[in-house]
């Protein structure tokens, strides 16, 4: 098994070892919007990510970066054990699973009344909004397992020879309150390709996205790997800003 799979899914494997009990985790109930689902009723990946975002706001989860800094998502690992379906009621729970000097990882679990099961692990970095440099946290948040460490380096490679690209314009509706492209948009791009269509067939799947830089309103280019397991999104002629792959 490739080493990156062991590293990236360590947080997902170790959830059962976390000392925080299920009853102690903040939990909210949400329903899957039919507008965010495929004709076969499967919830799309971008819908799942947006539901997690809504849950964090509904739960008013405390996530304080360093003073004067902002949180920036660097990586999200998403494991679908069973796909949520349209109108399914989901119980969404969350907790801080690990933290370091300039980063923190948050776990989110979704379980559904129809059998849906999804687990996410998102790595956040505390950065200075002007320089973009990492900023040390003034204190570590309470986490489920203080001993655990998470690899924070980004490992996605550049598009290999034989990759194909086409324009994928960013819409105004893709811009969020921070005036940049929302983190869920790369999942929309993935679903918009044959990669997403093939990877989403079956009971579940594992996916990983990495964010290297921000994207803004304007023309973008979507690149697909020759084997159909990864896509990149970025400004034409520049290094891709974000990528997602099936693992």
What does this molecule look like?
This is Acyl-ACP thioesterase N-terminal hotdog domain-containing protein. GO terms for molecular function: thiolester hydrolase activity. One of its GO terms (biological process) is fatty acid biosynthetic process. It holds the Pfam family Acyl-ACP_TE. It comes from Candidatus Neomicrothrix parvicella RN1. With 247 residues, this protein is an alpha+beta fold. It folds into two domains: 152 residues, Roll (Thiol Ester Dehydrase, Chain A); 92 residues, Hotdog Thioesterase (Thiol Ester Dehydrase, Chain A). The chain is 15% helix and 30% strand. The chain contains five helices and ten strands. A ten-stranded antiparallel sheet has the order 1-3-4-5-2-7-10-9-8-6, with helices on one face. Helix 3 runs antiparallel to helix 4. The radius of gyration is 18 Å and the shape is globular. The N terminus is likely disordered.
Helix-strand blueprint:
Layout: H1 3-8, H2 10-13, E1 27-31, H3 45-58, E2 70-82, E3 89-99, E4 103-112, E5 117-127, E6 164-167, H4 185-191, H5 194-199, E7 205-211, E8 221-224, E9 230-234, E10 242-246
Antiparallel strand pairs: 1-3, 2-5, 2-7, 3-4, 4-5, 6-8, 7-10, 8-9, 9-10
Domain Acyl-ACP thioesterase N-terminal hotdog: 69-129
GO biological process, one term: fatty acid biosynthetic process
Organism: Candidatus Neomicrothrix parvicella RN1
């Amino acid at each position: 098994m490739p080493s990156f799979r062991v590293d990236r899914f360590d947080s997902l494997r170790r959830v059962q070892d976390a000392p925080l009990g299920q009853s102690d985790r903040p939990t909210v109930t949400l329903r899957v919007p039919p507008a965010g689902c495929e004709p076969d009723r499967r919830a799309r990946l971008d819908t799942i990510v947006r539901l997690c975002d809504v849950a964090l706001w509904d739960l008013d989860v405390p996530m304080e970066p360093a003073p004067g800094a902002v949180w920036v998502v660097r990586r999200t690992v998403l494991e679908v054990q069973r796909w949520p379906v349209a109108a399914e009621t989901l119980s969404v729970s969350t907790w801080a699973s690990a933290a370091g000097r300039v980063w923190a990882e948050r776990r989110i679990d979704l379980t559904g009344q129809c059998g849906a099961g999804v687990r996410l692990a998102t790595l956040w970095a505390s950065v200075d909004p002007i320089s973009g440099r990492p900023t040390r946290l003034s204190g570590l948040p309470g986490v489920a397992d203080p001993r655990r460490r998470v690899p924070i380096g980004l490992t996605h490679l550049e598009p290999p020879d034989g990759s194909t690209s086409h324009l994928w314009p960013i819409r105004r509706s893709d811009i969020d309150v921070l005036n940049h492209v929302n983190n869920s948009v790369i999942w929309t791009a993935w679903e918009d390709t044959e990669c997403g269509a093939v990877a989403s067939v079956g009971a579940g799947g594992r996916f990983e996205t990495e964010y290297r830089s921000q994207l803004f309103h304007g023309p973008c280019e979507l690149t697909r790997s020759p084997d159909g397991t990864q896509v990149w999104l970025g400004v034409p002629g520049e290094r891709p800003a974000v990528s997602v792959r099936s693992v």
